[in-house]
Write a structure and sequence with these properties.
The complex is a heterodimer of chains A (268) and B (293). With 268 residues, chain A is α/β, with parallel strands linked by helices. Chain A is built from 7 helices and 16 strands. The mean pLDDT of chain A is 95. In chain B, helix 5 packs parallel to helix 7, helix 9 runs antiparallel to helix 10 (255-267) and helix 11 (272-278) packs across helix 12. The chains are: A alpha/beta (268), B alpha/beta (293).
Chain lengths: 268, 293
């Protein structure tokens, strides 16, 4: 596809594969998820989790097609081409938004052009709103679902200080807001659980709600992460190496979940 | 009788109107109608599009738009909507961004003649402060709940694409309504449906449970087979990936290359069937037709 993806020779896989497997292991049989635009990594992760350790996981493709099992993933994760094998096509206004606001769906993953230490995300503009340097697609349902859904997962295929910024140019979606108890004080449930990048995995420190390194991908040092992050990271815990994908996980991802490697679109 | 030609239906849209476009992202969008607006050189539109891509990009490329009211405009895995993005960055088109659910609430407030609809959507983000008059943050004293009050969003004309209509204006979406088209139909003063086919009235009376919009909610229907191309029309056909790729490539190859593509593939063909011919004709239709399993 004309894009280069970093090899992870230690694990006999590539970084996109490690990210998908890592995210999929965060989900379990209680996960009831759906997906928005350009969400190839979490879509692969939901499908992989369902094929491995979480057969009861619920995933609604494009927020519409419950339990879809597409033969291949198309170039849009909001496309109706993603719906093969579904057990229900849920109408958006009456069904989807009710399940989301009712918290019957409990899991949502999103990414952004900028991410801050509290897991807030910008997908609206780079620069001032009224005179943008770059006009981005817009938040879409991110502002909504980041408020409504308790288990939020973030991912970024590029980890650098332009994406992991000290201050967002615009807050399109909320993580832990201003940190501490800010999200809870707004009456919003849960919050970000993990942020999986091409360098490491963050969770969120329980008190400050700041991003904390929990594991490093093979070949990555904590100083690499520091140099690639525009805010001060928390790295005081027990930092491990991100566990290796199993042969079965890699086989399923490559051959059944995403055989045409649409997930690489996120690395363009 | 409510059946009109596509051209007559598009002529209902005056300069300066607020028009809401149905469909979502690459799906179920009334693209033939949008193309007709471009050909008619309609000007100064406010376009309401909850989640869109190519429809907004065409209207911007055609110089039809002064303001976009939307949650998201992109081509997804194929990239940003290029003409929209460039026009906003040049300051030629204003974008009034709302979250998806805030737009639904604003349309419902308009439909229901209510001062606002409340939602938790957008709390703690920068979104409500973009337009404090229409997304007010309030607190309900009895429950203590803080919410965003979304004020009514008036819409002059809604246009949606569906599978079938009869001459009375009953409309069916197969297999059932999936996107948020009902929200714009309910809110708008004039409602237009382009459809894949005009069907006999007995189609609707034989299976009334399959009717999506009743005749009194639809003012005009126009028959336009393949009228969502290059977007998809589930379950009949998929989006035309080759069109999206070629359009995006032309956009990234300079204004001359885009102008050539835009003129020959979108603006110039005088009828919808000429447009389909200019975009591969039967070969394209066979490619996008969904195989029934």
């Amino acid at each position: 596809m004309g894009v280069s993806v970093n090899d992870v020779p230690e694990y006999g896989c590539t970084i996109d594969e490690l990210m998908v497997v890592t995210l999929s292991r965060a989900f379990d049989n209680t996960t009831r998820a759906f997906n928005g635009a350009v969400s190839f990594i979490p879509v692969c992760a939901y499908l992989l989790a369902r094929k491995t350790h979480a057969p009861e996981l619920v995933w609604a493709a494009s927020s519409i097609a419950v339990d879809a099992d597409p033969e291949v993933i198309p170039e849009s994760t909001l496309s109706d081409s993603l719906w093969g094998g579904a057990s229900m096509l849920a109408n958006s206004p009456f069904d989807f938004w009710a399940y989301a606001q009712g918290r019957d769906y409990n899991t949502f993953a999103f990414r952004g052009a900028q991410i801050d230490r509290f897991g807030n995300v910008n997908n609206t503009v780079i620069g001032p709103y009224d005179a943008p340097k770059v006009r981005l697609p817009g938040g879409g349902g991110m502002a909504d679902l980041s408020c409504m859904i308790p288990r939020i997962y973030l991912w970024s295929t590029t980890h650098n200080p332009r994406i992991f910024v000290d201050k967002l140019d615009f807050r399109s979606g909320i993580g832990f807001g201003d940190g501490g108890d800010h999200r809870a004080s707004l009456g919003l449930p849960g919050g970000p659980q993990l942020c999986v990048t091409n360098l490491c995995v963050f969770d969120f420190e329980p008190e400050s709600k700041g991003m904390r390194v929990v594991s490093l991908h093979p070949g990555v040092s904590i100083d690499d992460v520091r140099a690639s992050t525009g805010f001060e990271i928390i790295a005081d815990g027990n930092i491990s190496m991100t566990p290796a994908p199993s042969a079965e996980e890699l086989h399923l991802l490559r051959n059944e979940v995403d055989p045409t490697s649409q997930r690489l679109r996120e690395f363009a | 009788m409510k059946v009109r030609s596509l051209e007559e239906a598009a002529a209902q849209v005056p300069d300066g109107a607020t028009i809401a476009i149905g469909g979502l992202s690459m799906n179920s969008t009334p693209m033939a109608f949008v193309r007709e607006l471009v050909r008619r050189q309609v000007r100064d539109l406010t376009v309401v599009a909850i989640v869109q891509g190519m429809a907004v990009d065409w209207l911007v490329a055609g110089g039809c738009v002064s303001r976009v009211v939307s949650g998201l405009v992109s081509f997804e895995g194929l990239g940003l909507a290029p003409q929209f993005r460039a026009a906003v960055q040049r300051g030629e088109v204003a974008i009034e961004e709302y979250s998806e659910h805030t737009l639904i609430c604003a349309l419902q407030a308009e439909t229901n003649h209510l001062p606002f609809m409340p939602t938790l959507a957008g709390l703690g983000t920068d979104m409500p402060a973009l337009h404090p008059e229409t997304t007010r943050i309030e607190r309900d004293e009895s429950s203590g709940i803080t919410y965003v009050a979304c004020t009514p969003l008036p819409v002059d004309i809604a246009v949606v694409h569906a599978h079938a209509a009869d001459d009375l204006g009953n409309v069916r979406v197969d297999p059932k309504l999936l996107w948020m088209d009902n929200e714009i139909v309910n809110a708008a003063k004039t409602r237009i449906a382009t459809v894949e086919r005009i069907a006999p009235r007995s189609t609707f009376t034989a299976e009334p449970h399959r009717t999506t919009y009743p005749k009194f909610m639809i003012d005009i229907v126009a028959e336009v087979p393949w009228g969502a191309h290059p977007s998809s029309m589930f379950p009949s056909y998929v989006h035309d990936r080759e069109f999206f790729d070629a359009y995006t490539a032309a956009s990234h190859s300079g204004s001359e290359a885009f102008s050539e593509f835009w003129t020959s593939r979108v603006v110039e063909p005088s009828s919808h069937s000429d447009y389909l011919d200019a975009n591969g004709g039967a070969r394209t239709l066979l490619r996008v037709k969904r195989r029934t399993s």
